[in-house]
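User: Hi! I have a protein structure encoded as tokens and I'd like to know what sequence might fold into it. I'm fairly new to this, so please keep things simple.
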């Protein structure tokens, strides 16, 4: 067993299946003691038992951490069981309803998606951050998706993931002085949410509608297992990434990437102290020229 994370206490939200289960197992292989969270108690217990059988340390804690009380219990349980909360990984999520778009999604469905993605990240980070600050450091790794760009359509899913990105960047900036790091991974991996006839039909329909190009469609239909993305989470959780915070990373199969920090490209400038506002016509000309 690698000593890379020896003595660390970790909470993996959504750790009972898919990417979260692969991350929990790899953290344990590197020496961390892991609280495995999932909504399904049987799945959480099964994953924790597999880690223990492999020589690692893990306990299961079921429930939805979008509930602040459960989020607090996860963090407190990690401290009570393993002595500290050094690592928080958020991997929980739900799929957008089939065929969902802004034309037909209900407000209730939209709120459910935001709660599952952004709400869960907020609740767990809110529970863990003060404890990490008090103990002198920690690492938060949140899961987003390249869907935040809108290329995959939907509503609450891309909105929630975009919110995860922004919240993580804000946490990274605020807690850097306390040696608490926060990063994002946008993973591509074959899970129950990204496989099966319904998923394949959805991806092909996005291509038909022009939202995904040919490369994007084939890449979405031929993704590697979660084991290929788990190492990036483990790296960001470790001291090897001690200087890495506020990053939005991508991992899919053998590909690893990083989104650059958004910065505005200058279209035009004039000093408001001695110039009038741009007219609508001037703005049209400026935008068209910039596009060219």
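Assistant: Happy to help. Inverse folding works backwards from shape to sequence: for each of the 292 positions I chose a residue that suits the local structure. Here it is:
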């Amino acid at each position: 067993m690698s000593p890379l994370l020896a003595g660390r206490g970790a909470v993996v939200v959504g750790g009972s299946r898919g990417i979260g289960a692969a991350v929990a197992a790899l953290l344990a292989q590197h020496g961390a003691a892991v609280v495995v969270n999932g909504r399904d108690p049987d799945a959480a217990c099964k994953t924790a038992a597999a880690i223990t059988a492999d020589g690692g340390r893990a306990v299961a804690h079921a429930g939805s951490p979008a509930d602040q009380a459960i989020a607090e219990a996860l963090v407190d349980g990690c401290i009570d069981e393993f002595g500290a909360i050094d690592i928080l990984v958020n991997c929980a999520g739900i799929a957008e309803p089939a065929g969902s778009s802004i034309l037909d999604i209900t407000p209730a469905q939209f709120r459910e998606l935001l709660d599952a993605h952004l709400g869960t990240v907020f609740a767990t980070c809110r529970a863990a951050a003060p404890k990490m600050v008090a103990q002198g450091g920690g690492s938060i790794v949140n899961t987003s998706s390249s869907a935040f760009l809108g290329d995959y359509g939907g509503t609450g899913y891309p909105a929630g993931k975009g919110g995860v990105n922004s919240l993580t960047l804000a946490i990274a900036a605020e807690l850097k002085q306390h040696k608490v790091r926060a990063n994002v991974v946008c993973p591509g991996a074959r899970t129950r949410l990204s496989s099966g006839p319904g998923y394949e039909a959805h991806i092909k329909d996005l291509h038909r509608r022009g939202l995904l190009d040919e490369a994007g469609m084939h890449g979405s239909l031929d993704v590697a297992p979660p084991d290929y993305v788990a190492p990036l989470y483990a790296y960001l959780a470790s001291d090897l990434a001690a200087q890495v915070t506020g990053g939005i990373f991508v991992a899919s199969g053998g590909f690893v990437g990083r989104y650059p920090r958004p910065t505005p490209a200058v279209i035009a400038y004039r000093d408001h102290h001695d110039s009038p506002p741009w007219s609508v016509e001037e703005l049209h000309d400026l935008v068209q020229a910039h596009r060219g």
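A useful reference point when you look it over: The chain has nine helices and eight strands. Feel free to ask if any position seems puzzling.
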